[in-house]
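Quick sanity check, Glutamine--fructose-6-phosphate aminotransferase [isomerizing]:
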Amino acid sequence: MCGIVGVTGNDNAVSILLEGLEKLEYRGYDSAGIYVNDLNGKDYLIKRKGRISELEAAVGPDVHGSVGIGHTRWATHGVVSEANAHPQFSEDHRFYLVHNGVIENYKELKSEYLSNTTFASQTDTEVVVQLVDHFVQTEGLSTKQAFLKTLGLLKGSSYAFLLIDSTDPETLYVAKNKSPLLIGLGDGCNVVCSDAPAMLNVTHDFLELHDGEVVTVKPDTVEIEDANQHKVDRKRFTLTWMPVKPIRDLIHTTC
C-alpha cells in the first residue's frame, strides 16, 4: 500500500511531510518523494528510490514552503525509479499529483487524449495529472472542473488522489474511492493523510472521507462534495492518543 500526506498553511511543510511519510513506512514502499511550494514563486520537487532516509538526505536546507504533498510508492506501473516515483507532474509543471491505487484504462485515456503529450514516466498516475492539465488548457476548465472531468473518465477498483495546482498552491484537491484518506483540521493549517498517525504531531481532529467524494482543502477551510457535487457537512472526530515515537522535534509545526 502506498502512503499519501499533504499540508497547506504551515511554514514547516517539509518537516510535516517527511515526518508523515516516516509514520507510513509500515505500508511498504520502494521510493518516496515530496513537492513543496513557498507561495512566493519557488517550488521544489525531490524524489528518491529506496528508503525515506535517502529522500531526507536529498532535501537541502534551501527546500522550504508552507504547502506540499508527499508519497511513498510501491511500484505497479513501471520500474522502481525516480522518474516513476511520486509526485507526478504535468508536462508544463503546473500540476503535481500523488496517487494510491490502479487506473485500469490509463492506456486508452493516454491514446485518446494525450497522443501529443511528452511523458516523463511509465506510470498510470502521470496520465491522470496530464489529463487535468489537458482539460484546463484545451477546454478552459478550472482546476476543480478538470479534476472532476478526469475522475469521471477513470476505471479502476480503488484510488486516492491529492492534487496541487502550482498557480494556486494553497489549495489541495482530494478524491477517493475504496482507498483510505483523512483530512486533519488545525488552526490556519489543514493536512491530508492515508492514516491518522502520520499527522498526530500536527492535529488530533480529523474528517473521514467517503467513496466518490471530492474535497477542496485550504488553510482555513475544507469543502466536501459528494458524487453529485452536493456539499456535505460532516462532523469531525478527535483522537486522544499520542504518537508512540516522535521522530523529530515538531514543536513549531502544530497548527
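Posting the structure with no commentary besides this: The radius of gyration is 17 Å.
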